[in-house]
Amino acid sequence: MNRNASRLSALKPLARGFTVASFATLLTLSGCSTLTSDKAAQNQAESSQQAEGQLTLQDIFASDKFSIDRPAPTRWLEDGSGYTTLESSEQVKGRDIVRYHPETNARDIMVSAQALTPEGWDHALEIADYQWSNDGNKVLIFTNTKRSWRTHTLGDYWVLNRTTGELRQLGGDAPESTLQFAKFNPQGTKVAYVMQNNIYVQDLGTFTIQALTNDGNDTIVNGTFDWVNEEEFFLRDGFRWSPDGEHIAYWQLDTEGTPTFTMINNTDSLYPTLKQFPYPKVGETNAAMRIGVMPVDGGNTTWMQLPGDPRMHYLVRMDWAGNSSQLLIQQLTRKQDVNRVYLSDINNGRSQKLLSETTDSWAEYVDDVKFLDNGQSFTWLSERSGYRHIYRVERDTGKMTTITRGNWDVVEVLRINESDGWVYFIASPETPLERYLFRAKLDGSNVLERLTPAQPGTHSYSVSQDAKYAEHTYSDVNHVPVTEMVSLPDHKVIRTVVANEKAQQAVDALNHKPLEFFRVTARDGLELDGYIMRPTDFDPNKKYPILFYVYGEPWGQTVANRWGGWLSLWNTMLTQQGYIVASIDNRGTKSPRGFDWRRSIYKNLGVVTVRDQYDALQEMAKRWDYIDTDRVGIWGHSGGGSQTLNALFRYPEAYDMGMALAPVPDLTLYDTIYQERYSGLLPESAERYKETSAITHAENLEGDLLLVHGTGDDNVHFQGSERLVNELIKYNKQFEFFAYPNRSHGIYEGEGTTLHLRTMMTEFLKENLPAGAR
Question: Which part of the chain is the Dipeptidylpeptidase IV N-terminal domain (predicted)?
Answer without folding.
Answer: 133-478
